Write the structure tokens for this entry.
Amino acid sequence: MSYVVNTLQNLAGQTAFATLTPGNYIMIAVGLLFLYLAIKKGYEPLLLIPIAFGMILVNIYPDIMASPNAETGTAGGLLHYFYQLDEWSILPSLIFMGVGAMTDFAPLIANPISFLLGAAAQFGIFAAYIFAILMGFNDKAAASISIIGGADGPTSIFLCGKLGQTEYMGPIAVAAYSYMSLVPIIQPPIMKLFTTEKERKIKMQQLRPVSKLERILFPIIVTIVVCLILPTTAPLVGMLMLGNLFKESGVVHQLTETASNALMYIVVILLGTSVGATTSAEAFLRKTTLQIVILGLVAFAFATIAGVLFGKLMCKLTKGKINPLIGSAGVSAVPMAARVSQKVGAEADPTNFLLMHAMGPNVAGVIGTAVAAGVFMAIFGISAF
């Protein structure tokens, strides 16, 4: 009888219930909420589902993120090895290759002024950097947090790893991807607040056709020019443009298909689950996490405001030829931010079609956020390789 009792006690002691803290239960509930938002509401499901599941796993079984122990010869947890690829900035760079293979830069090529709108939206990053410094974060942590304003999760993770701020990687990544998924909720009120109904009704001229030669030359020229000026952008901008060159060259269909599908989705699974696994209760339920979430929202709001205001300026300079709404698409949440510009414009005038015009600043924002990350790395003397 004692054998049976001891066996049952040992089994009970091995369950997660024996070690779970209230904080773990809170994080599991957050993970379930993210799953609900991803599955039921459709908010960035490709990212939120693996992140949420990694969050649940690490709060039930912390050893899944355990580091290897050389003295005892114990191997690390499964997600620890996934996470190493985040710290080494490999996965974010590979995601940029996949994004490039899926991106059409024609709207940006046809309307180069979109570069300025994409650049204006990066103001949110530098505004958040100043606010983070004022809140007591060190300069590198402030830089890592501020990239959330670009609404670009991979770049946030990339810079966090390069600047050695991995202790903040979980909250930063969760905040970045959360705000990316909430673009349709956060941006419209800001866009309507800073524009008039007359401005929202402005119809833009159809974009000119872009030749195949222009499409091929664009990724080559952008890579050479940007990386010569700011070599620290090479891992992100270089991979983004390589993926786009696969697509536009038309001679490597297998590479385009692999980069934009199989490789992309494998990387998303590895990155999402490992990022989610950094959100253990001990690491996530802290004052700094709330500060990061607030700063991320500030950064994102300032980026949207700056894009819209610069759009208004361009509207005046071109005598009403540019709809200011496309400026909000300067954040790099592709293509969701462009769709929001289209939606808000269509609410003012159902016959207005802004999507392709908004895609120009939207893809420019991807480049702009990578450049902003490169600027921070150059400031702190961090090598890109």
